[in-house]
Amino acid sequence: MSQTTPPQALPVFTDDPYTDGNLADPYPLFDRMRAAGPAVWLEKYGVPAFAGFAECREILEDYRTFISGAGVGPKNLHKEPAWRPQGILESDPPVHGPMRAAMAGVISPRGVRSLRAGFEVFAKELVDRLIEQGTFDGVTELAELFPLRVFGDAVGIPREGREENLLPHGAMNFSAFGPDDERSRSFFEKGAGTHEWVMANCARESLAPDGMGAQIWAAADRGEITADQAALLVRAMLSAGLDTTVFSIGNTVQALAAHPEQWAALHANPRLAKFAIDEALRFESPFQSFFRTVSTDTVFCGVPLAAGSKVLLFVGSANRDARQWGDTADEFRIDRNAGGHLAFGMGIHQCVGQPISRLEMDVLFTEMAARIRSIEPAGDPVPYLHNTLRGWRSLPLKITAA
Ligand code: HEM
Prior knowledge:
Bound molecules: protoporphyrin IX containing FE
Oligomer: single chain
Number of domains: 1
Distance between the termini: 53 Å
Helix content: 40-55%
Largest sheet: 6 strands, mixed
Number of helices: 19
Shape: globular
Strand order of the largest sheet: 1-2-3-9-6-4
Structural class: alpha+beta
């Protein structure tokens, strides 16, 4: 990916984190990587990989040494073209600042508060339906449905075409942050045509006048960002905001179904929903891994890194690091203080969309917690194998109403 020989004294790993087996259960490999030292050399990809909490956090916070503008995937976009124009995520200061300010202005905790009532109406309708059914698929009938409706409405895009376009588009987009292999290419094939649909719906004239997309365009009218940046920011909402939340809802419901005592605690006190969500984000992080590019020759944690080379960060592993989370790091416990996890990243690129995905999940899980007494698996869950996203393709579930 960037270098051909490991920096001095780095443990060499021949393991491939992107095989079916390691994607289905990455934690044994993550344990070995963390135990081997601050970084390991992934021979197959020719890149140093960081899997510990302290190291990943420090890299994310040091945006001057570990830049995003050369891409957060394996390609160095200063040397090779990107598959699409680079947006906020793959930019550095000073380009990053105005885009970040425009987005944060629209998606602040205060800005999204007015959306709560509408989200609650749909959450109630959805939980009514699931209780009536008794058994359902936690992915297609819950985790996908909820954000497709409420998040799509909040951005202000047409309802028609969302499911067929946004889900394959997200899977394709997130594939570019991992290796260019057969799996990644198949997500690109499935996503063919969806980028055009997304870009057409980022245009000012396609967006509802009262949605978050239109508010981004208003920042362009005020001269705070350019028209091109406005379109890229609406694109960022649609490409970064849906799959991540879908997987997050699926991972949370699966963790709760697999730990009945945790559901019982949540049912007894639905106000714990916020804590359950953070713990699930830590326990099964939806966006598992991504890259940075080294801007200048440096030595980090004793590892010499050359300017222009890539480093790979496994935040999904950092969020299981016992040095940060103690001996219970591999346990799902909603009474844990999981704040500070890296599932939303850290530093200047920390997820700007988190207030809205947190609102979506808080509304949904508060409604479910209050009205569902028990939730349990009704069949084998089917994992969704993707190079950078972690989640489920199918979750057969059975519920009992309160
Ligand atoms: C649970 C759901 C979500 C997860 C787990 C998640 C995860 C992340 C992570 C890890 C990053 C940092 C990546 C990096 O440092 O390179 C990030 C950045 C970002 N996310 Fe999210 N995200 C979620 C929801 C959303 C939503 C709902 C939106 C849009 C409304 C969104 C838009 C963005 C954008 C635009 C960035 C780039 C911010 C910047 O570069 O300043 N995300 N997200």
